[in-house]
């Protein structure tokens, strides 16, 4: 009986192979496996992309936060500059006044130094003139005393 069942099974298998039914079934099974494999790979790729998408989302969010922070910082800086603008103008005016005062003092000091130099030169000229006069007088005295001596000696 087992042999008969086995013979029947083989006969049916041969009929299916000859009719192409078994080949279509194998092809269909292979296509099913391919589809399952492709879907599994797509799911796997999607799962891999999820962390990347999460990370990219976090990075985008952080970049947006930084841009917002930079914008606030620029606005704050502009507000601070606007607030201190009058003070800067006053400080600039004070600096100009101080610089003008220093320039005036420098000019006055220069004039005083020039006057002092002229006075010193004039005094040095007087001393030189007096010194030359003394030399001339000494020379004259020497000449006159030597002439006195020669006259005395001659007598």
Number of helices: 2
Mean pLDDT across all amino acids:
86
* Helix and strand composition category: mainly alpha
Number of strands: 0
Topology pattern, helix = H, strand = E:
HH
Radius of gyration: 60 Å
Kindly list the characteristics that best describe this protein.
mainly alpha, 2 helices, 155 residues
Explain the layout of strands and helices.
Layout: H1 2-19, H2 21-154
Précis, in short:
By secondary structure, the protein is mostly helical.
Can you describe this structure?
The chain has 155 residues and is an all-alpha fold. It contains 2 helices and no strands. The chain has helices spanning 2-19, 21-154. The termini are far apart. The relative contact order is 0.02.
